[in-house]
């Protein structure tokens, strides 16, 4: 299509009209010019197409679709191919329903375990979040269906989410919160980006030119269009000028008229409007559903249910397995307890809530064990203990070989629209676990939750299985793991702290009045716990298996590299157990320099491999400059300090098996200008500056060349002097250095 020609033939009113929706889910048509409407629908873990076109709050029923595991679960798979397969399957359902753009994936960072929407986001780690987003987008867009990467950006809470200002320093914004969006935009090229509701450093994301144009388009090369989150527009003209092309849902013509008036009055240059319309039309024509797509990607809901079950099984994390109590032998007498066994919680609440065409509770597969029975134990819809249900459960547990309690967070505990206030299970579930474990030492707890919980009962049970919110086939997937039909291979994409108060954002979440300050900076999740040397319940990257893996023979192809080099790392991993299994091999980078405050280590690579008993494979990683760099906010660039870096490979962030140091240096050394406000230490670190000091210092002691050279008072004097600005030298040492002398000697 000749997009520019179409735009040139449009009236001003037609162009303005295309910048907002026709309904809650459809874009506008310009019939005389052949411009079609496209339908967008919620995701990201399934299709939520509302039957009522004007219903954007989800008050009415949506069409039946496959509910796949939510992002909190899929990220735990660490499996990019699996996520892409899921995206492709969801896209087939979109095509069948004439949906052109799936709203997702959610790429925000899990800053606090209290965020009510954490189940919809991947991780506390930007590298993992970025890779999972790329896989999801590629899987969907391979079919021709578009995606909407969301919520851009710094949208890590539900409290006051439409008005709060996220106050984030530039380095933190770049390294933690923008990084996964950057990876997704550059590597997967999503058709659209959804801006968030909140303000970022005082400016609404919907009209933040720095974010929408300077970074997103000019730096990252984004060539799709930006759509508002539903109702996120504050000032339509300012938003359009900043880079927000499409407002959703419909403004019923109100904001269209405002755009027209702004152009007529000269407040808005019409070329800005033209460019916005070109971007919208370009994606519209690319994503309109065709007959060829329907033929190429036929819908098979039963097959998608099988895919959902297989994916859920790969996402389950085995947190604890004392005495190898799992898997459970088929001939064991098993007591299943907990209403989640018959009423599984498999997704979160809000805009991503799917209407599943079928749901498989674990109870339906109770027959895979020869002698298994069930009792309710507690009521999901009530936090108070039912004494009759509790006593029946304790008796039931004591009469069996193994007890499996299906516990978790009810729907009302976590959802879009509000944040959690604590990390506890309901009181009746905690009491049930404690009382059952007193009489049945072989107790297993299966968890259904979208965020970490506290586990004061952890020492009383033999095993804990984190099922997260695993989609419509979650019940079947859990039974696959309990029985050993599936060997669990998921690992945590977030840290489970011992208690809420340990979380780095605890004192600054969800903020006060109209601001939330991200004072923890880059120390989010495991970065914080590592730096504080703080014990956690379960670390980032943790997950057990029914087999064992050994790591050996780390090899790095360069011991001394430049920031322009590609560095290849290899390591051997062997299955030393008796059953086949999958291991997620994780690579972290540690900076040994202290020029800036940095995390102890950061995830910069991962690979999931499948190994038969006795099988060994070589795992390869490739590293580049960004693997070692931090963002220098003063210079506005990614910077690598020359020196020693550790390459750490292991099974979790706290289970490092192998390490090797290498030297990495910048191609062009970073030279900061020396002024009279620079410190004496900074001057001495410059070769010419050190010569200047030597030339003019006279008898003033500035170095301690040996333990006996300086008296304690002189030692103190040297320490004070080194951190003194050059302009103050003369007052304390008689050594006067002027800016002219600096320019002459260092120039």
Topology at a glance:
Blueprint: H1 3-8, H2 12-17, E1 40-42, H3 71-74, H4 80-96, E2 101-103, H5 126-141, E3 146-152, E4 165-167, H6 170-188, E5 192-195, E6 199-200, E7 203-204, H7 209-219, E8 225-228, H8 236-242, H9 254-265, H10 270-287, H11 291-296, H12 301-315, E9 317-321, E10 333-337, E11 371-375, H13 387-398, E12 402-408, H14 427-439, E13 443-448, E14 463-466, H15 474-483, E15 515-517, H16 526-532, E16 549-556, E17 560-562, E18 567-575, E19 581-591, E20 602-611, E21 616-623, H17 625-628, E22 630-632, E23 637-639, E24 643-652, E25 655-665, H18 680-685, H19 687-696, H20 712-722, H21 729-733, H22 739-746
Parallel strand pairs: 1-2, 2-3, 3-5, 4-6, 4-15, 5-8, 10-11, 10-12, 12-13, 13-14, 17-25
Antiparallel strand pairs: 6-7, 9-14, 16-18, 18-21, 19-20, 19-24, 22-23, 24-25
